[in-house]
């Protein structure tokens, strides 16, 4: 047993006194620091409001295409002129303890820190309304400790020198509501054509949800996400006692009528491009839209203003005014991923929803080049033959069947080559290839080619039933043209701050991710859609525009009952067109079915008319031979049709075509005529 001696008691007491003394010193020091900061903030007085500086946007040639200043969309109103529902919705979702804290909500800060620690990333914010207002007043955008410290000082200065109502009023008059609109009065006018005082509960909850992410929660940008956030805010208001359950239900089901003045919504040049550029920049710089729009930045974009004008004119002139069909268009430099032109719809003033970057639609047969790339990379060749005939496919261990059909139910009822299959868009060949490779291979291809939506592992995926974004699949075609280098849709090359310092530079280092030889072989097969020499049991899919093309192109069209696609490229440019109805209405008029191909052909010819004519150049490891497209064998002098076709070295055909040799026996029968035996006859899952 330890014996407590007087000496040990004296040591313990000395330790306790020392700890107590040090603790008191630290407490006094901390209190002095806090008091000094508070007194300094009080002495500094209220922070002055700063005038936002215009951010200027430039095209790729240095010409100015836009200026973000927002002076015409910023109005200051008092709290008395703002609906109580706006005040309650804002406090409920942004800072429910606003009237109780002194600028910092320590409980929320602790909770957010714990959530971030658990997720090992930034998943939850804890900024109060005062802190956000301070951030609106602070000019610098860098995420540094100095900025955080300055924002904290601004927060204290606001709390020291303004009442809570004054802070809330300032916040609601400076917060960003998307589309260049600042302040609740301008937002109420822009979205609903009324004043902030007249907003209903449902309208107030909708607007209160936008500042968290204007490109995500604006009802013009994403109606579904905006509605989800409105419901969350109404539920939070109910939980905080601002509204009843009955009021919540009424607000959720209220039909909101939006008002957008075309002259307010329309940007002078490439409005859809500018919106997409802004969303991209928010992701790249990890800063909010308000900072980008008002801090005097210089944004250098990839836009080619002349190509943009060509695209806009062609889309406008190609589609009848009375038609309700919509269109999306993207043109990209296949070497860099730079977006040269973009159209997200026929009228930005009526609908800012971007059908080129936001809409997800079934791509139809435009997915097939990704499938055939995988096939070429796994042993297939342009000469590989399979039977084109009505076929039922069993999958899921025989528990399900899938019976696709060709366009207009046309079939060869014979063997066709892969070269013919892609030119004629034979669906049976595509599904057979898909199943033979293993359906996971197309899923993998989608990831390799950078599609942001996952392809489903089902037989119909070979015919494009898994939705994609237009900009993603156009970018994927660009990777085929550049022989397999990874590119991403890029809108901004450089950003400078107001002092001329570069704060963002696009990365130009593109990594090889595809097999170079397989990518080229696929590309060259895709030129077949315009080659009428490949006509067989039906015409090549590009026959209607082939005569209007004056240079080498590779491409693929796609059709579903509700979507029409045309994507193709030259060595210098890749472009894609989607046309269809927003609500999934079927495309039934013959003229409307041709819009995508017509727009694409006219754009490519006009956009490239001043550029040199270039051909697709085969890389090392690829060899070209003349074949008879019908048999896939080496062509002879007797073959009526010969086509130069490329193969990965070592896979090219070695047998000569004998179908047209006039060699007969004594009975007059052609001794070379043979019944084709397919190498995939062992499949047991089709009839």
Automatic annotation (TrEMBL):
<dbReference type="InterPro" id="IPR001264">
    <property type="entry name" value="Glyco_trans_51"/>
</dbReference>
<feature type="domain" description="Glycosyl transferase family 51">
    <location>
        <begin position="62"/>
        <end position="237"/>
    </location>
</feature>
<protein>
    <submittedName>
        <fullName>PBP1A family penicillin-binding protein</fullName>
    </submittedName>
</protein>
<keyword id="KW-0812">Transmembrane</keyword>
<keyword id="KW-1003">Cell membrane</keyword>
<keyword id="KW-0573">Peptidoglycan synthesis</keyword>
<feature type="transmembrane region" description="Helical">
    <location>
        <begin position="21"/>
        <end position="43"/>
    </location>
</feature>
<keyword id="KW-0472">Membrane</keyword>
<dbReference type="InterPro" id="IPR001460">
    <property type="entry name" value="PCN-bd_Tpept"/>
</dbReference>
<keyword id="KW-0121">Carboxypeptidase</keyword>
<keyword id="KW-0645">Protease</keyword>
<dbReference type="Pfam" id="PF00912">
    <property type="entry name" value="Transgly"/>
</dbReference>
<keyword id="KW-0511">Multifunctional enzyme</keyword>
<keyword id="KW-0961">Cell wall biogenesis/degradation</keyword>
<keyword id="KW-0328">Glycosyltransferase</keyword>
<feature type="domain" description="Penicillin-binding protein transpeptidase">
    <location>
        <begin position="328"/>
        <end position="574"/>
    </location>
</feature>
<keyword id="KW-0808">Transferase</keyword>
<dbReference type="Pfam" id="PF00905">
    <property type="entry name" value="Transpeptidase"/>
</dbReference>
<keyword id="KW-0133">Cell shape</keyword>
<keyword id="KW-0378">Hydrolase</keyword>
<dbReference type="InterPro" id="IPR012338">
    <property type="entry name" value="Beta-lactam/transpept-like"/>
</dbReference>
<keyword id="KW-1133">Transmembrane helix</keyword>
<dbReference type="InterPro" id="IPR050396">
    <property type="entry name" value="Glycosyltr_51/Transpeptidase"/>
</dbReference>
<dbReference type="InterPro" id="IPR023346">
    <property type="entry name" value="Lysozyme-like_dom_sf"/>
</dbReference>
<dbReference type="InterPro" id="IPR036950">
    <property type="entry name" value="PBP_transglycosylase"/>
</dbReference>
């Amino acid at each position: 047993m330890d014996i407590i001696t007087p000496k040990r008691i004296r040591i313990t007491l000395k330790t306790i006194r020392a700890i107590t003394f040090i603790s008191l010193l630290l407490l006094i020091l901390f209190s002095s620091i806090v008091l000094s900061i508070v007194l300094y903030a009080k002495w500094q007085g209220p922070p002055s409001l700063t005038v936002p500086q215009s951010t200027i946007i430039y095209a790729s040639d240095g010409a100015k295409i836009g200026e973000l200043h927002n002076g015409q969309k910023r109005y200051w109103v008092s709290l008395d002129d703002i609906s109580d529902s706006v005040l309650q919705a804002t406090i409920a979702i942004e800072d429910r303890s606003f009237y109780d804290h002194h600028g910092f909500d320590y409980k929320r800060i602790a909770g957010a820190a714990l959530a971030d620690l658990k997720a090992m990333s930034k998943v939850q914010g804890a900024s109060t309304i005062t802190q956000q207002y301070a951030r609106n007043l602070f000019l610098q955008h860098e995420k540094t400790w100095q900025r955080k410290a300055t924002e904290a000082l601004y927060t204290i200065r606001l709390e020291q020198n303004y009442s809570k109502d004054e802070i809330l009023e300032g916040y609601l008059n400076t917060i960003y509501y998307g589309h260049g609109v600042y302040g609740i009065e301008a937002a109420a006018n822009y979205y609903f054509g009324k004043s902030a005082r007249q907003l209903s509960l449902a309208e107030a909850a909708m607007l209160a949800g936008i500042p968290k992410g204007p490109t995500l929660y604006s009802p013009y940008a994403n109606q579904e996400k905006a509605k989800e956030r409105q419901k969350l805010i109404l539920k939070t208001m109910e939980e905080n006692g601002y509204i009843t359950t009955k009021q919540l239900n009424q607000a959720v089901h209220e039909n909101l009528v939006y008002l957008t003045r075309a002259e307010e919504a329309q940007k002078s040049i490439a409005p859809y491009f500018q919106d997409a550029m802004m969303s991209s920049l928010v992701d790249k710089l990890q800063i909010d839209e308000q900072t980008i729009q008002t801090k005097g930045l210089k944004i250098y974009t990839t836009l080619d203003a002349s190509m943009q004008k060509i695209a806009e004119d062609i889309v406008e002139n190609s589609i009848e005014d009375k038609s309700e069909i919509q269109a999306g268009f993207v043109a990209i430099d296949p070497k860099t991923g730079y977006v040269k032109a973009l159209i997200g719809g026929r009228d930005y003033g009526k609908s800012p929803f971007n059908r080129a970057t936001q809409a997800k639609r079934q791509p139809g047969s435009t997915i097939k080049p990704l499938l055939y790339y995988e096939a070429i990379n796994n042993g297939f060749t342009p000469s590989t033959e399979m039977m084109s005939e009505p076929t039922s496919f069993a999958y899921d261990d025989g528990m399900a069947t899938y019976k696709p059909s060709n366009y207009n139910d046309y079939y060869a009822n014979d063997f066709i080559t892969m070269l013919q299959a892609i030119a004629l868009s034979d669906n049976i060949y595509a599904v057979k290839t898909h199943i033979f490779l293993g359906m996971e291979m197309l899923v993998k291809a989608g990831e390799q080619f950078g599609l942001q939506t996952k392809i489903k592992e089902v037989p119909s995926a070979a015919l494009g039933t898994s939705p994609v974004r237009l900009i993603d699949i156009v970018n994927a075609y660009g990777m085929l043209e550049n022989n397999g280098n990874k590119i991403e849709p890029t809108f901004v090359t450089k950003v400078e701050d107001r002092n001329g310092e570069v704060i963002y530079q696009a990365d130009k280092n593109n990594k090889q991710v595809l097999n170079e030889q397989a990518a080229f072989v696929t590309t060259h097969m895709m030129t077949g859609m315009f080659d009428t020499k490949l006509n067989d049991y039906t015409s090549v899919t590009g026959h209607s525009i082939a005569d209007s093309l004056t240079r080498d192109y590779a491409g693929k069209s796609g059709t579903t009952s509700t979507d029409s696609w045309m994507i193709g490229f030259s060595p210098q440019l890749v472009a894609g067109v989607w046309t269809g109805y927003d609500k999934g209405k079927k495309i039934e008029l013959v003229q409307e079915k041709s819009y995508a191909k017509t727009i694409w052909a006219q754009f490519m010819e006009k956009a490239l008319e001043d550029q040199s004519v270039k051909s697709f150049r085969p890389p090392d490891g690829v060899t070209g031979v003349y074949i008879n497209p019908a048999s896939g064998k080496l062509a002879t002098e007797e073959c009526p049709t010969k086509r130069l076709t490329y193969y990965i070295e070592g896979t090219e055909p070695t047998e000569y075509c004998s179908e047209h040799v006039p060699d007969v026996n004594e009975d007059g029968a052609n001794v070379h005529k043979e019944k084709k035996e397919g190498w995939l006859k062992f499949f047991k899952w089709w009839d």
